[in-house]
Amino acid sequence: MADIVPPPPNGSLMLAWQVKNKHVLVVGAGDVALSRVDHLLQANAKITVVTGESVHPILRKYHEMGLLEDLIVRNFRLSDLKLYEPKNIRQRVMELDHDSDEDNDDGEIAALSEEAVKLIEEFEQCKFKMVLTCINDYPLSLRIWQKCKGLGIDVNLADKPANCDFYFGSVYRQGPLQIMISTNGKSPRLCNRIKTKMLIPMFEVLDLESAVENLGYLRFQLQKVYHPGDDTKVIKERMEWNRKITDFYSIQDWCVMKHESIDKILKLYPEFPSADTLK
Amino acid sequence: MADIVPPPPNGSLMLAWQVKNKHVLVVGAGDVALSRVDHLLQANAKITVVTGESVHPILRKYHEMGLLEDLIVRNFRLSDLKLYEPKNIRQRVMELDHDSDEDNDDGEIAALSEEAVKLIEEFEQCKFKMVLTCINDYPLSLRIWQKCKGLGIDVNLADKPANCDFYFGSVYRQGPLQIMISTNGKSPRLCNRIKTKMLIPMFEVLDLESAVENLGYLRFQLQKVYHPGDDTKVIKERMEWNRKITDFYSIQDWCVMKHESIDKILKLYPEFPSADTLK
């Protein structure tokens, strides 16, 4: 235990955020807003843009194509932060919290009523999950940040790192594979260069989308046909074999493998194939 | 405008989350909890671990080393989700929100009092920014999720993607540079392989920490000495030159450059150096 070296600090927490079908608000409609919307479209967010200024033609086009939840061209109002919340839903959820605030003396945690759970799920669907301001009006941006903090909404104020719950980075994507490069705000341009000069040349010659699909097929067949079952032991065995078989072939192999070859590999389960199986 | 191709959907929103000096709660203390804590330590979070089970020896060691805010070994209580919130602060912030709920008729958005802003900032510091459950008790995890949704806290339940605001990925790090690889939950093992077999061999021969430091020095000197000023035109000129000079040299060049060479480049501002400046 003497040689425990904790991870070095002063980085970011790199995360793949899930905003599929969740409301996200973008304030402003210029170049930065367009870049934010492009990120959000990749994650299937329900995007609402509020802007009092002129609208980027591509954002307007996105709206015409039905890609935005809404494009509202008028001055921002603080009440926009609860745009899709039915009247009183927030208060009702808060009161729910208050009711269940005390843990039982015996350490048991009481379950919520079905009605209460539904209310929480409804609230989760109607509230904004995040708010991104992309405007030059810092006092307004800051006022939005303040209100969001009270409402429990994550915020990014463009160009104001101190008021950002999260930063964007350079992202390379190929189907389900996504790679984000960040220098923790220190050199966004270098991130872009690393993406362009190092990642793209290395990854564009590979069909990683097929590799992911192939590994998904392998896992699915293993679970449904070759080693089904839900108990902990079986799940553990599957995970172990999956891990080892993924490492058994090269990334390049997985990119070009056919389902017939995967079927052959599966038939050997729980053994591992000989090195020349794919030849 | 006919050829606008929106970004492909069905991915994640890749983000660098900022939890420096913010409270984060980890429920559980096994292998998964340790992995979460390692991610969080990289981002300087104030980590509290609550666990009724046995504690991973490395987590115990981390606590002894003073790396954790707290390690609480007892059954989880719902009130733990407000562990660091002074009594009534949440309610006072909510009431604040209620007071300022209406926008003025003339479209002006009223500023908050200094006292109110302080209260919001205090709340932001004392509330949990995120909660990560790493336990086998799904009903309890789900109950924690429900309460967090009411409290405006982001949540990740290990192994329950449907209840996760975010996923973790494989992360390669070199100083301030961080690269996250994700397949959107489809093949974590492939992410690990891509990191090990593709990214590490390519990046370990480069001193990217120096590249980031060098570009930071260049930017700082440009702003303080060679082209100071705060007006929009000057900032734009600096950004433009910065962008172009970053691209002028290769990533490899920036990794090995000396400050004397950077000073030479800066003296040429706003010109660009000839191709053999570094020779």
From TrEMBL, chains A, B:
<keyword id="KW-0560">Oxidoreductase</keyword>
<dbReference type="InterPro" id="IPR028162">
    <property type="entry name" value="Met8_C"/>
</dbReference>
<dbReference type="InterPro" id="IPR028281">
    <property type="entry name" value="Sirohaem_synthase_central"/>
</dbReference>
<feature type="domain" description="Siroheme biosynthesis protein Met8 C-terminal">
    <location>
        <begin position="207"/>
        <end position="271"/>
    </location>
</feature>
<comment type="pathway">
    <text>Porphyrin-containing compound metabolism; siroheme biosynthesis; sirohydrochlorin from precorrin-2: step 1/1.</text>
</comment>
<dbReference type="Pfam" id="PF14823">
    <property type="entry name" value="Sirohm_synth_C"/>
</dbReference>
<dbReference type="Pfam" id="PF14824">
    <property type="entry name" value="Sirohm_synth_M"/>
</dbReference>
<keyword id="KW-0627">Porphyrin biosynthesis</keyword>
<dbReference type="InterPro" id="IPR036291">
    <property type="entry name" value="NAD(P)-bd_dom_sf"/>
</dbReference>
<dbReference type="GO" id="GO:0004325">
    <property type="term" value="F:ferrochelatase activity"/>
</dbReference>
<keyword id="KW-0520">NAD</keyword>
<dbReference type="GO" id="GO:0043115">
    <property type="term" value="F:precorrin-2 dehydrogenase activity"/>
</dbReference>
<protein>
    <recommendedName>
        <fullName>precorrin-2 dehydrogenase</fullName>
        <ecNumber>1.3.1.76</ecNumber>
    </recommendedName>
</protein>
<feature type="domain" description="Siroheme synthase central">
    <location>
        <begin position="174"/>
        <end position="195"/>
    </location>
</feature>
<dbReference type="Pfam" id="PF13241">
    <property type="entry name" value="NAD_binding_7"/>
</dbReference>
<dbReference type="InterPro" id="IPR028161">
    <property type="entry name" value="Met8-like"/>
</dbReference>
<dbReference type="GO" id="GO:0019354">
    <property type="term" value="P:siroheme biosynthetic process"/>
</dbReference>
